[in-house]
Design brief:
With 241 residues, the chain is mostly beta strands. Helix content is 8%, strand content 68%. It has a twelve-stranded antiparallel barrel with strand order 1-2-3-4-5-6-7-8-9-10-11-12.
Length: 241
């Protein structure tokens, strides 16, 4: 009987704890878009344009999202970097703290060595903490990719995927975010990927914010003479509505 009471107490405490982690999810449509433009003139002429957009529809326990991104850099009229990505995702919540997702997307990174890469994802999501001012969650899943390289034949690879993100409100007008992603390659162990991005966002108004971010990307399977590591520092204007 004492054991049953102990198990019941633990179960109730677990339910209460999970409920305390949850916060009310905003229903309906939402969008977060950011844009950055940098131009340089004088001894050299260069232009850099980048943008991101995330559109979501939350309907009860279901969330549908569409992500888009673009980067174009030119120096003296010659394109030095170009990348784009477009992906969709469906997420289903089964409790306040965990759910599952499926997603599909296409991306391109000419300077990264591929014309197009298609990614199919499936996995689970779990919130360790979800409260006003602090979110901490992780995702665990599987990714199947098909790549069209700049040189050579199209090939398919399988990856695991471990993702973690922390979002902290430092003060009313200042927010910090840190996310990291590791993808072990099941076909070639040395071809693993990882990405990490810390960022700070300062609120300017109810809609607009200024964001500073540093994205580090590593591709262990990048063919020679391409570098395995890339870094991107951006300062962007963000609009939320």
């Amino acid at each position: 009987m004492k054991r049953l009471n102990l198990f019941a107490t633990i179960a109730v405490a677990s339910i209460v704890c999970n409920q305390s982690l949850a916060e009310e999810v905003k229903q309906g449509w939402s969008n977060e878009s950011e844009a950055s433009v940098v131009t340089l003139s004088g001894n050299t002429e260069s232009e850099s344009y980048s943008g991101k957009s995330v559109t979501k529809l939350t309907d009860g326990s279901n969330t549908y999202s569409l992500n888009a991104r673009y980067l174009d850099t030119r120096a003296d009229g010659v394109q030095s970097a170009k990348a784009w990505g477009l992906s969709g995702r469906f997420e289903r919540k089964f409790s306040p703290v965990w759910g599952a997702f499926v997603g599909y997307g296409a991306e391109s990174d000419i300077t990264g060595g591929y014309i197009q890469r298609d990614n199919a994802d499936i996995g689970a999501k779990y919130y360790f903490v979800k409260s006003e001012g602090f979110d901490w969650f992780s995702e665990l899943g599987y990714r199947l990719t098909q790549t069209i390289p700049l040189a050579g034949d199209k090939f398919t690879e399988s990856f695991g995927r471990v993702y973690m993100e922390v979002l902290k409100t430092i003060r009313n007008d200042l927010q910090g975010r840190l996310w990291g992603e590791y993808l072990p390659n099941f076909r070639q162990s040395s071809g693993y990927l990882y990405n990490i991005e810390p960022s700070i966002m300062v609120t300017l108004s109810e809609i607009f914010s200024m964001k500073v971010a540093y994205l580090y990307k590593y591709n262990g399977g990048a063919p020679e003479p391409l570098k395995k590591a890339e870094a991107l520092f951006t300062t962007s204007l963000v609009a939320k509505f």
